[in-house]
């Protein structure tokens, strides 16, 4: 009899043998022990002490040792080691528990992915531009943004994305990275409109980029320091940008969009209570509030202007994404609360790309708000590597200026 192994006991007459004899060449794995190990694995998963889960939580170091170490495949639970038993491998799980843990991890990743997809995100702000070449130069050469995609349309948008115009128009998305994790600008160009009238609704976009400050100075673009380390400049059309003279961060450098409001408390109530934004800051003395959906996203700053908000004809639109299932709920909530809906839930087609669903709202001061289904929008908003070329080709083939000049006319001023 090998050392360290107890001799088998003879069966007691009239009583069933509870402990089966070990099979030759293998360590005994009794059913009650296997069941106990499965139950223990489930308990460790529920308590978060599973070694596999701990390795994921501590990727750069050894995970804390579980008070119930898992036994390796083919080995016995703690006890006298037999000659056929393999050395213990700390942290390795038996197949049943390992498969259960892997399934739980897959489920956890799925839940996190669903949560991430369903969470609301700040996407972009829409600017109407009358001078497309100069606007492209400002966003690309001065701000240092890239063309993410460019699309041409022969007729007006069903959701009035290009404003109240029915003719040919284009949409160019520019930014520091994809809309999955960056706030970008949408440049809407109507071929027959040369300029728009600004109101007091849009007060500016703030971003961090010392390179943009340097670019503006090199290009001779008008720029002035309004506070220490913060410079103000204007895009073509008069849209204000505030540039913090600091090194551009690796994450999204766009910090906030500032909109004017007539009554700060009413606006804060609308955005926080109805649209579920978190209030990050509120300054009653300066009559401003900072809101957003997440710490790492571009924020919305509301600033009281002490009067009625005038949107002019250059009025923009701020866009957010949410789970597609939320869109009818948002629309129903606005109807219930007697809030303005500019465009009821509608599907928008882009040739060759995903069809998205949107609902367009207006806040108490008439600021346009677009909510779009997140899943389809992620597909639609994929960066097009040919976007810059498509924009350049469109600008090169745009002879609208020559046409108006040949007819002794000027483009319309909206």
UniProtKB/TrEMBL annotation:
SUPFAM superfamilies: Glyoxalase/Bleomycin resistance protein/Dihydroxybiphenyl dioxygenase (SSF54593)
InterPro entries per record: GLOD4, GLOD4_C, GLOD4_dom, Glyas_Bleomycin-R_OHBP_Dase, VOC_core
UniProt xrefs under Gene3D superfamilies: 2,3-Dihydroxybiphenyl 1,2-Dioxygenase, domain 1
Bias-annotated ranges (Low complexity): 78-91
Primary location class: mitochondrion
Residue segments, region Disordered: 1-35, 47-111
Signal sequence interval, chain numbering: none
Subcellular location field: Mitochondrion
Ranges of biased composition (kind: Pro residues): 61-70
Occurrences of domain VOC (ranges): 121-246, 253-374
GO cellular component term of the entry, any: mitochondrion
UniProt family annotation: Belongs to the glyoxalase I family.
PANTHER family referenced in this protein's UniProt entry, alphabetically: GLYOXALASE DOMAIN-CONTAINING PROTEIN 4
Protein name per the record: Glyoxalase domain-containing protein 4
Native source species: Amazona collaria (yellow-billed parrot)
Lineage of the organism: Eukaryota, Metazoa, Chordata, Craniata, Vertebrata
């Amino acid at each position: 009899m090998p050392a360290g192994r107890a001799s088998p006991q003879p069966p007691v007459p009239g009583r069933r043998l509870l402990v089966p004899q070990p099979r030759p060449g293998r360590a005994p794995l009794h059913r009650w022990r296997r069941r106990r190990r499965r139950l223990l694995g489930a308990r460790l998963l529920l308590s978060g002490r599973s070694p596999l889960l701990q390795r994921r939580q501590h990727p750069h170091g050894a995970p804390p040792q579980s008070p119930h170490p898992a036994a390796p495949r083919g080995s016995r639970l703690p006890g006298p080691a037999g000659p056929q038993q393999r050395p213990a491998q700390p942290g390795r799980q038996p197949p049943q528990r390992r498969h259960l843990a892997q399934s739980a991890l897959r489920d956890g990743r799925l839940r996190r992915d669903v949560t991430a997809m369903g969470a609301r995100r700040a996407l972009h702000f829409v600017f109407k531009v009358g001078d497309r070449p100069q606007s492209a130069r400002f966003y690309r050469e001065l701000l240092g943004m890239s063309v993410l995609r460019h699309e041409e349309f022969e007729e007006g948008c069903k959701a009035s994305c290009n404003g109240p115009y029915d003719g040919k128009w284009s949409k160019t998305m520019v930014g520091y990275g994809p809309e999955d994790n960056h706030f970008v600008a949408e440049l809407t160009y109507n071929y027959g409109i040369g300029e728009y009238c600004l109101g007091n609704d849009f007060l500016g976009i703030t971003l961090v980029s010392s390179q943009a400050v340097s670019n503006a100075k090199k290009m001779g673009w008008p720029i002035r320091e309004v506070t220490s380390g913060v410079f103000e400049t204007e895009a073509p059309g008069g849209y204000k940008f505030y540039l913090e003279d600091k090194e551009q961060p690796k994450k999204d450098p766009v910090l906030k969009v500032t909109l004017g409001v007539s009554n700060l408390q009413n606006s804060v109530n609308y955005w926080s209570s109805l649209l579920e934004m978190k209030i990050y800051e509120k300054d009653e003395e300066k009559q401003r509030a900072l809101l957003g959906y997440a710490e790492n996203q571009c924020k919305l700053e509301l600033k009281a202007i002490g009067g009625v908000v005038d949107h002019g004809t250059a009025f923009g639109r701020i866009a957010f994404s949410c789970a597609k299932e939320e869109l009818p709920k948002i629309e129903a909530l606005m109807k219930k609360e007697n809030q303005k809906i500019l465009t009821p839930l509608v599907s928008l087609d882009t040739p060759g790309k995903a069809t998205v669903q949107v609902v367009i709202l207006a806040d108490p001061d008439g600021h346009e708000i677009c909510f779009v289904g997140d899943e389809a929008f992620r597909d639609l908003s994929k960066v097009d590597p040919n976007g810059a070329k498509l924009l350049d080709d469109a600008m090169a083939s745009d002879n609208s200026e020559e046409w108006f000049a040949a007819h002794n006319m000027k483009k319309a001023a909206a």
